[in-house]
Design a protein that fits this description.
alpha/beta; eight-stranded mixed beta barrel; five-stranded antiparallel β-sheet; 24 helices; disordered N terminus
Amino acid sequence: MYHAPVSADLPEEEVPPAEMPEANVGSDAAAARLREADVQNGQAAVSALFAPYFALAGAGSALLAGWAMYGHSNLALIIGWLAAVGGGHWFTYQRAMDLALAAGSRSADKRPDWIPITEALALAMVWCSLPVYTFGTLSPDAQVVMGGAMGAMVIAAVALSAIPAAAMAWIGAMTLSLCVAYYFGSPVQDPKIGVTILAAAAIAISGIARLTRWTYSQLRAIANVRSQAESVRLLLREYEHRGVGWLWQVDSENRVVYISSRMTALLGRSTSQLIGHSLPASLGGSSMLGQTLLARQPFANLEMELKTRRGTRWISLAGDPIIDMSGQFQGFRGVGSDITEVRKTQERLTNLANMDVLSGLPNRGRVRQLLGEALSTAQSTNVPCAIMFLDLDGFKPVNDTFGHPKGDAVLKSVAQRLVKEVGDAGHVGRMGGDEFAIVIRDAQGRKVVEDLANRLIRSVAAPYQIDKVEIRIGVSIGCAFGPIDGQTVDDLIQKADLALYQAKNQGRGTCCYFNDDMRSVAEHKLRLEQDLSNAIAAGQLRLMYQPLISAADQSLLGFEALIRWHHPTRGIVPPNDFIPLAEETGLIMSLGEWVIEEACRAAATWPENITVAVNLSARQLVLPALPATVNAALSRYRVQANRLELEVTETVFLEDTAGSLDVLKRLRALGVGIALDDFGTGYSSLGYLNKAVFHKLKIDGSFVREAARSKETIAIIQSIVQLAKNFRMTVTAEGVETADDFTRMKDLGCHQIQGYLFGRPMSYERATDLIHGTATKMSA
């Protein structure tokens, strides 16, 4: 007489998904069917719980009713009725217990609602049949007993509270039968008795109705909870099944209560070997995990290293404390995952981020880390470390001559040689370009470091055979010791860089070690740079003008503008001190613009036959905007372009040759003269004389002085003069200091003379006086 019975007390055994095709967590209809099945489970469980009570109540009331009818009705009829009532109650009891025992399939078909109602009505009719039939023959005392027995059965409807409709059908049938028996069987119709019967029935109906509604609502609530729990359980099973992670739970003593089979497989141990044992101990005795669990606080992303039969594995744990209703700590439950592959990927990415792709050595960032670690160890152990900066000598021509592929091959070979020489003594890294660095962990023996530096210089200097081409380069090294020379990574790197700069200045192919003198030089250089950046605005720069004389008649042709710096505290700062600094710091750009501007301003006040020459730095020639700057200055002061000469040295051909030639050609197109200064002392530039760029060659003063005692030098000067004639260029001899120098240069064919013989560099005012004096003399 009850719904399809599925026991609510059934333990939550794992049910394979194949047995529950409709249990799709994402399907609302399937979830609804599961909830209905859970309601039926609850109804069956409650009915089975009350079945003994209902059977005993029915049998006891039937015996009481039979005793009341005894003597007023046929004994055989009473016995037959008792047998029928007992059989009906036995049937309902057995039915309820059998259905409860058979419960378990949540996919069982739902039984129609009318079945339990019909079963309740049928049993009520059997129960009331004889009492109603014999009620009128009973004595008043027997009728009271009979009414009490039937009233007790009305109250027994509480056993049907899990099924509200069946309970109401039972109460209705019993109450109606009692009323019919009283109305037709009682000789005296006492209203008080009728009202009493109806009132008792109403009270029973009201109370049981409330009870059945509450019971039914609780069953539905339990069904909803079970449905949600089932969804969670399936999700967790899917979580474990798909290999996303695994689950674990420990008690208040950190003993394992539950752990997924995936984790036991990872550890290579059975579940029985883990259950009841300490989780930290089972996972290798991790103190970090033990401390985390003792804190009794939620945690996440706790990474641990495990030693397993499959090798070293990394896992990540997360967990939350379990607190019961009374606020007592009951343990932890959480999730875990194998992050070994993630860690390996992270390590690969870290290696890539810390590695120079070309050489396979640690890159600049990694070198800084290694130096930081070595410096920290040195500070704690008092064993100094060292950082060596290496810069290849003569590497740029390799790229320019043989191309970048061969240059890269040379860099790889250099890296291999450095690693071989250093061995386990330190770490070799590439800082970028042709710069390398070596971090030495133990530099307690300075002689050991010096020997290593010498071996490195010899090793790098050995020839390189790249595609049957022999290439030779060198290396300069700067070294600093920590924490002796510096307490921080940046400080040590700066000191090693200063030492490298000193090694370069000493002729390259050497190793220099930082000392305090280098610090003083660096500080002096820094202060000089700061002062130079303010020199133009402060009006500290001046142009001096050295006369340029015609060799034919000693007439004044023009001046070469030479910059001078009048420092307020240092006095006169030589150009050799601040021009290289300006080139290195980039100040040469603004400095060069100022010189061009001042030279054009001076030329504008002089006669049109007087020219002015300005020296250009190789760094200025890489600026595409230089021709526009020159043209703007000429236009501003209305100076003819052919009155301005721009002098460049042969070092321009060591830089960006193509770009420099383009700028020179654009300057030549403006009409300005381009002179090649110090010809023959530097890079071989003969190949560029036919580019139709230069209009003048200037012979360096060293040739002029050597010509007095060297026939070879005279031959060189003759060759230069002849070369200039072939290219229709003017030849100027610099550094002429004596009358013999003048006569010799004139005889060798030089067109113009410049030197102390005809005047030292002079101020604008004295140059102007010289022009006017010469003009007056010439007119006279």
